[in-house]
Design brief:
Elements (H helix, E strand, L loop, with lengths): L4 H9 L5 E9 L4 E8 L6 E2 L6 E2 L3 E2 L3 E8 L2 E7 L2 E5 L3 E4 L13 H13 L3 H7 L4 H19 L6 E8 L6 E7 L4 E7 L3 H11 L1 H4 L4 E4 L3 H10 L4 E4 L1 H25 L9 H5 L7 H12 L3 H12 L8 H17 L3 H12 L1 H5 L9 H4 L2 H10 L6 H12 L10
Parallel strand pairs: 2-7, 10-13, 13-14
Antiparallel strand pairs: 1-2, 3-4, 5-8, 6-7, 8-9, 10-11, 11-12
Helix pairs in contact: 2-3, 4-17, 5-7, 8-11, 8-13, 11-12, 12-13, 16-17
This protein binds zinc ion.
Zinc ion binds next to loops.
Length: 412
């Protein structure tokens, strides 16, 4: 006996008891297919969605519609009135349906497809357009996906963590970002770069996972340090080598600016236009930079001395082990402190006060360079987020695109 259209659609949808397809309505003008579903109820067999106890039918909820994957070029909707049970403990409840999550206007299969498409699309805007979704619906799908992913992530072990700040929006707005350095993923993001912000990052990770973190890469920023030591006292602190290089670069630049001012008063523009020479890695110097540098060095200027101190510090990270590094640091420190260049001395003292957190690098060779890799993605999300009213929306997108979460709904 040939299969009826209803049976055909039931099989396509993979529906099981008690669900059957009652009717399939094709609206040619609207380019739409409506599939009407119905629960064929025998006595009992319905479950309270809270306690899973079985009950008979109480009544049917008002009609609802879910957008499903398109049928060819036709938008496809599922339509049903979901049965309700009357549970003495939980009251009147609609039963769970196999094709959609609670409160969603989309089927699970549509959501899975939307997630895949949004992730592959160049921008959220183009993905939303391809899916013929409005902004709000696309956001809700991403939000539910992130929620699922975060719940699943709670079971995973996070060993090596990086905490870093990123600028957000105009001017002085910052966000704090926690990442998993082993798996190259963003774990969480919160506004501001205060001790409270850092504390919030740890709270969101959860006590159990926080206590299992072995090492944290972090700047020498006191508020972050305090909050981290409190939330994960067992974790080794490793000061991020790129932040240290930044501090040293800034010290060199301060020396340059002061010396440049002084020289100009004396009528010399020896240092004008040399800023980039001192900040660049010598490996990236052009021939012209090299010539300029040699001339400046032989002139015995202060900034050349500052530069040498900064450059020498690079070697710290290539030491064989902590013992050798400790020895190297002591020599470097003596030199830096005797150089009579105040900005360099300040950084040297700061490093000495935290030398244990520098030497820990030789146990855990971690740094925040990985989170720098998220910068361009976060920047582009930020640009697309110009219309965003809240930080919460921005967070969902960061976690959706950079969180490496298991986002997909489990379909039955
Ligand atoms: Zn119940």
């Amino acid at each position: 006996m040939p299969e009826s259209l209803e049976q055909h659609y039931r099989r396509l949808l993979g529906l099981e008891e008690p669900w059957v397809v009652e009717a399939v309505k094709l609206e040619l003008a609207a380019q739409r297919v409506e599939i009407r579903l119905q629960a064929e109820l025998k006595s009992g067999g319905l479950k309270c969605p809270v306690c899973s106890k079985g009950y008979g039918l109480y009544d049917h909820a008002p009609e609802r519609r879910w957008r499903h994957l398109d049928t060819m070029q036709f938008e496809t909707l599922l339509v049903a009135r979901i049965p309700r049970v009357n549970c003495p403990e939980h009251g009147v409840k609609t039963i769970e349906v196999p094709w959609a999550g609670k409160n969603s206007r989309f089927t699970l299969m549509f959501e899975a497809f939307a997630i895949r498409l949004l992730q592959a699309a160049e921008t959220v805007g183009s993905g939303t357009w391809l899916l013929r979704l409005d902004w709000h619906s696309a956001h809700q799908i991403m939000e539910r996906a992130v929620q699922r992913g975060l719940e699943r992530r709670q079971m995973e072990r996070v060993r090596l963590v990086g905490i870093d700040e990123k600028s957000f929006g105009r001017g002085q707005d910052y966000i704090s970002l926690m990442s998993d350095l082993e798996q190259s993923r963003v774990l969480e993001v919160v506004p501001e770069r205060t001790a409270e912000a850092c504390q919030e990052l740890w709270t969101r990770l959860g006590n159990e996972q926080s206590r299992k973190v072995e090492a944290v890469s972090i700047d020498m920023w006191e508020p972050y340090l305090k909050a981290t030591t409190k939330a994960a006292p067992q974790a080794q602190i490793v000061h991020d080598k790129f932040h240290i290089a930044k501090h040293l670069n800034e010290a060199v630049d301060q020396v340059r600016r002061a010396e440049n001012r002084q020289l100009r008063r004396q009528g010399s523009d020896l240092l004008s236009g040399t800023k980039h020479v001192w900040l660049k890695n010598p490996q990236n110097w052009h021939q012209l930079d090299r010539l300029k540098f040699e001339a400046l060095r032989s002139s015995g200027c202060k900034v050349a001395r500052a530069w040498q101190i900064k450059e020498l510090f690079r070697e710290f990270w290539s030491c064989f082990d902590a013992t050798e590094a400790e020895d190297f640091f002591a020599r470097w420190y003596r030199w830096a402190i005797r150089c009579r260049l105040a900005p360099l001395q300040t950084v040297a003292r700061m490093l000495k006060a935290r030398v244990a957190n520098l030497l820990s690098y030789f146990t855990y060779a971690i740094c925040n360079a990985m989170t720098e890799g998220f910068n361009s993605k976060i920047q582009s999300l930020k640009h697309a987020a110009r219309g965003f009213r809240t930080f919460a929306n921005f967070r969902i997108r960061i976690l959706f695109f950079c969180g490496r979460l298991n986002l997909y709904p489990s379909t039955h």
